[in-house]
User: What shape does this take?
Amino acid sequence: MKDKNKKMRKIIKDGILDLAGFKLYCCVLDDGTRGLSTRGTQEVLRIVDKDDKEKWSANRLGEFLNQKSLQPFIFKEKGVGNFDPIVCYDKNGVKTHIHEATGVIDIADGILEARKNGKLGKRKNIVAEQCEIIVRSVAKVGIIALVDEATGYQYERERDELQKQLDKILGLYVLDKPQKWEKIFPWTFYKQIFRLYNLPFTVGNIARPGFIGTLTNKYVYGNLPKGVLDKLKKETPRGKGGNYKHNLHQLLTNEVGKEDAKKTIYSIEALFLISDDMEEFKKLEAKCSQQKESLYTDLNLVVKDEKKQIKEDFDKKFKALLRVPPLKKDKSK
Assistant: This one.
């Protein structure tokens, strides 16, 4: 029966970790604990052979560690229950068992200490060899992460990744060369602007320098994904007087850029229509802009597959592993 008074430990993040050539489930709990699946832990330590299904159980690791020959080394600094499986629940409320990630290093350290003292038999030496591989794998990743943290390079990596994602989005919206001009702004769009400003709607007013362009940039191009407007301005050539030789929308891609711009134009025009003056429009537009990130769900799906290929850094998921003290030197070698 479940203890109702005991706080349920929940998984807030999970993934697949490549550790010493083994793929195993990993997760982070709501209290910050980093965990590895019990089965994965047993497999990566080679306590149970991968194909020996009859011996798979959440308690197999505990049974192995409680052997008399290992106890003085495994539990030298930590209690017997320190390596017990942790019961936790995923977002769907499904119960699972994990082992704390740092415990893998503690176990490896203890087994290597036992080997140094000649306390391992043939089967346990196989485990010891695997422990040595694990420790070396973690040490390599750990020293890289520590150097990155000390030099601040980890933030450079994050900025580089953000820039790659931005470039991917911009590639979906902006062309390298302008296309042939086509009309995407209806006359009614401009007519509503002049109504809100209480100005006569004439061709001369529409051509007024700076007035229409400023509004269009702010309320149409400015509501496209971040960076698109800057990219359009940068890629659109200017004449001797500094004016653009082409309309900005001539650099928008047909499939994504122009379609998104047209949707934005229709949305802005709808706000124009229900507004009595420009002040009312600005308030409505500001309210809508707070939710504009949700307008790009489809775009996020486009780049989702690419993001899946970018693995999160080991040091981000398992910082606890990096704080493990150096292993004692094995003098038996």
User: Anything to note?
Assistant: The two ends are 51 Å apart (CA to CA). Residues 117 and 308 are 45 Å apart (CA to CA). The chain has two domains: 11-151+314-322, 162-290.
